[in-house]
Design brief:
This protein has helices spanning about 15-25, 45-55, 80-90, 105-110, 110-115, and strands spanning about 1-10, 30-35, 65-70, 95, 120-125, 130, 135. It is of the alpha/beta class and about 150 residues long. It has one domain (about 1-135): HUPs (Rossmann fold). It has a five-stranded parallel β-sheet, sandwiched between helices. Strands 6-7 form a two-stranded antiparallel ribbon. The protein is globular, with a radius of gyration of 14 Å.
Length: about 150
């Protein structure tokens, strides 16, 4: 079974990430682990995000067999959390789900290249922005205006 580490904070339930999970699960049996480096948002939980990804992996009819679990980062630092997860697990690739490039600290700090240096292929998923309003939120069902 293919094993994918998904790294996301505020983008854990964005449509673009859910579509990618669905696509990957349809291609081949895949076990997904959601790593949330900063588990402090007050308006959603790791359990909520894992349940949302589990539904996406199950497919539109909910019949696809899935495996999705979750991890919380200990330090709040994305790279340190990823490094610890990779050292403690067997992953075939990493999906980084980031904020749009204008606001993403992960992209400004070149997190994708740093993670690639760990020896795994990295895919970066970034939600689109339409008319200045990001199509992402702080968690399931929440949206805010980009400033």
């Amino acid at each position: 079974m293919h094993r994918t580490l998904i790294v996301a904070n505020r983008t854990a339930s964005t449509p673009v990430l859910l579509q990618e999970v669905d696509r990957r699960a349809a291609e081949q049996p895949t076990a997904f682990t959601l790593l949330v480096p900063d588990p402090t948002p007050e308006n959603w939980s790791l359990d909520d995000a894992v349940a949302t990804l589990r539904a996406a992996a199950a497919g539109i009819h909910g019949t696809r067999e899935t495996h999705v679990d979750g991890l919380s980062g200990a330090s709040g630092d994305a790279f340190e959390s990823i490094q610890a997860a990779v050292a403690g697990g067997r992953y075939d690739d990493v999906v980084l789900s980031t904020l749009p490039s204008r606001t993403s600290l992960w992209l400004r700090r070149d997190l994708p290249s740093r993670v690639e240096a760990l020896g795994l292929p990295v895919t970066v998923i970034t939600p689109p922005v339409a008319r200045g309003i990001p199509l992402w939120g702080k968690g399931p069902g929440s949206h805010e205006r980009d400033r």
